[in-house]
Please model this.
Amino acid sequence: MIDKDQTLSSLKEALEASTADQTELCLIGEDLSLTRFAESQIHQNMYRADTTVYVRAIKNKKIGITSTGDLSAQALKQAVVDACTIAELMPEDSDFDSLPSPQTAPTITANDAATTENTPLLRADAVGKVVELCRKSDLQTAGAYRVTTDTVAVVNSLGVEQFGTSSRSELSLTANGEKGNAGWAIAYAHDAKTISPEQIAKRAIDKAARSLDPISLETGPYTVILEPAAVGQLLLFLAFMGFGAKTLYQQRSFMAGKIGEKITGDNITIIEDPLAPEFAGLPFDYEGVPRKQVTLIENGIARGVVSNSYYARLLQSESTGHALPPNNTYGPYPKYMAVGAGNSTIEEMVASTGRGVYITHFWYVNFLNPMKTQVTGTTRDGTFLIENGKIGAAIKNMRINQSILEAFANAEMISKTRELYPQYSVAMLVPAMKINNFGLETTEG
Model:
């Protein structure tokens, strides 16, 4: 684990080597414990600790950025000197105003002993339970049990000093049969004690057992019921395409010109809620600015986007604490999104559907048209036909061709329960949804 006092002291000492007008040092550390398994056997057990310090130096609105993985005093000072040298060689960025000034970040209990002290033996025991349950159902299993502790420290020449750690755990697995049938499930939590390997395995096993002899469906619009993971995958791409201030400022976002207008159904509310206890994330961003709650969509109406200090100035607003590391090119985007709950259950959604498709999750989702929020991908590991209010035959995987905003405009029912779903270092609290007129295409012929 990275020590707070020692880290801040080292970063502040290195800061003194700067000859720039303003300078920032950002330390990002990741302690990763990972157990992977395939064909019902553990094939990889590893621990990795990576720490990188990024330096951003500004001279006359010229910005130089360096990074180093060497945390010695000499190396940190050299990185600062190098950033200052690079700044002199860069073109002026007339839009840059200033690094952030100090602000007090809220206190979050973001480290859990059951997660940070999770051992290879405990993870192996969890995998063993999964393997045994799959074996009893004549299935094999593959997946990963991941435990991570993130550390971020930020200091700058204006007096910012922030330090925080956050832990998280994730178990995902696929149960596979000899006839190509498969089922998938995932669990994600701040507290590793809340993850039940048995429950996750049973969900995947149930999907695999029902995935035998899949039928084909023709291309067309369908009523679909999306499990929370499938909703989360759509939400993640929606965020990439338009919930950040950079794409809004550059008029590349579907939110551009739409703030205050209806863009989804009345029952859709999406909030970037970094301080929610379910997430237990870091309370500040990579500039040291406290993270703020931001309403992105409220009852179907576009309300706002997340920003860092750079784009907040350009949009004449305030930073919401969503800066990414200094070397990123994406600009700010949400990290802890929550979709408002509804008042239904998945069972009620199924019972209310005359004919439709039940979808566990998607695979290889990718952009087609960002401005129209059009994406593609395929269903995977548990896709079933719904007829007369009951889940029936398995369906061969189908390709989606769908606008996410149109899908959320056609959300007929939303579940009252929500689940945590992680992807690409973003955590989401998402419900299941019943959506009408969802575009599915056959993958045959």
Summary: The chain has a mean pLDDT of 94. The CA atoms of residues 54 and 67 lie 4 Å apart.
